[in-house]
Amino acid sequence: MCGIVAEYGQQKNQAQQLERMLERLTHRGPDDHGTVDLGHAWLGHRRLSIVDLDGGHQPLGPGEDGLHLVGNGEVYNHADIRAQLSGTAFETESDNEVALHLIGRDGPQALAQLEGMFAFCAADDAGHFVAARDPVGIKPLYWTPPTRDPRGGVRFASEMRAFADASLPYVEPFPPGCCWTPEHGLRRFASVVPAELREPADVSGADRDAIIAQIADSLEGSVRRQMMGDVRIGVFLSGGLDSSIVAAVAARVAAERGERLPTFSVGTEGSPDAVAARTVADFLGTEHHHTTYDADQALGAVPEVVRCIESFDPSLVRSAVPNLFLARAAAEHVKVVLTGEGADELFAGYAYVRDLDDEALHAELVRTLEGLHDLNLQRCDRVTMAHGLEARVPFLDRAVIDVAMRIPPALKRTTGGTAEKALLREAFHGWLPDEILWRDKAEFGDGSGARDVLAEAVDALVSDEEFEGARGELDPPVRSKQELWFLRVLRAHLPGLQAERTVGRWATT
User: Fold this and answer.
1) The pTM is what?
2) Could you list the active site residues?
3) Separation between Cα atoms, residue 110 and residue 75, nearest integer Å
């Protein structure tokens, strides 16, 4: 996992500014640093070594057609792509190198073949340039679109903090599943939910047992793929259903390799998540590490958390507080962790969707999947990369998404006292203790204790008058005192940022 910076249409004497942008991403890649200046374009890279530890220095290239590439992410099917690119001269074992040769041979649309999480920028001496981001938006990429920034030149970076203050008013998230070239502008090469899956499937004739088997097979395959690497891999184990399932599969894979899986949990003293995580760890026999925090530590961490995740959404900030403590502790033991992100969006795990009819439920799941890139995935990426730690999300593997979005929404609905995500629970019967497999869902910021320790303290920092006077600063309006305080912290950190254009917000606070 890495940090990248790039510019197309480089202005004269701008290389030092671009180097400073790259320096602001050192936390994303403390192991290596590389740049290439092509005159019309500049590429920079900070590296966290996970695959091909001794090689894989970036920028990669030049390839046979003169292309250079910087990348942030992992390509899980890189071995299959290498086999398809017969006759191509590979210089490294880096999984990212397949993107270099695919773009060079077939153009950026060929990136649809990749399975993984990635953001790439590539350029050659002849004036060509391309930027691209994975279809789910697991890996971040921001830019100053040519239609927005009147100063000339298009800049790209892995985090908003990389951009100079003068560029912040023009910064936007680069859209997932898209590529940009100077010749053709912004084009889509893949979608998180393909067109054929955007309409809900009919429940008539659905085979529940077959669906349950497909869920188990697809997720097990995803976890196996995502345990790729030359370093030790752990799991963030909240004690909730989703992370516990990931841990159960990963523990089995680790045992096959003769290893013991490291797991990591966090919470206030006696919090429900802490107790449940220990139960799962004992059942699976993992090497478990638990971190405890108190109210003072949680409140003290909030400004750092807001700056780290580059968001002011209250639900995101609350869940990121324990996540930050968790990532800090895990980084002392591993370089890569698997998480349970994405299961609620695939299997209708949120309470607010329970009253939706089938069509509305499917539409809402599509919407939330398309919005994950600037909500949960943004938090997941930032809190881990702040500590040089890579997070992977097996539920958001495209094979898992394909299986989940083909399931008729009628089978996902929570009715008549049925537990949410019942299909997912049934798919992993026997993998976990029943009290975990059928545990009621708790948001991570709630189950870890963060909501309780933050609510009263943060609300006391903003008066009723301040809140009423500031609600109109955003459209839609500021929804709570917590949201207003977090927004002020973010604006102080990134002055001039157009928050409405860059920050996702949950439907509820």
Assistant:
1) 0.92
2) 2
3) 13
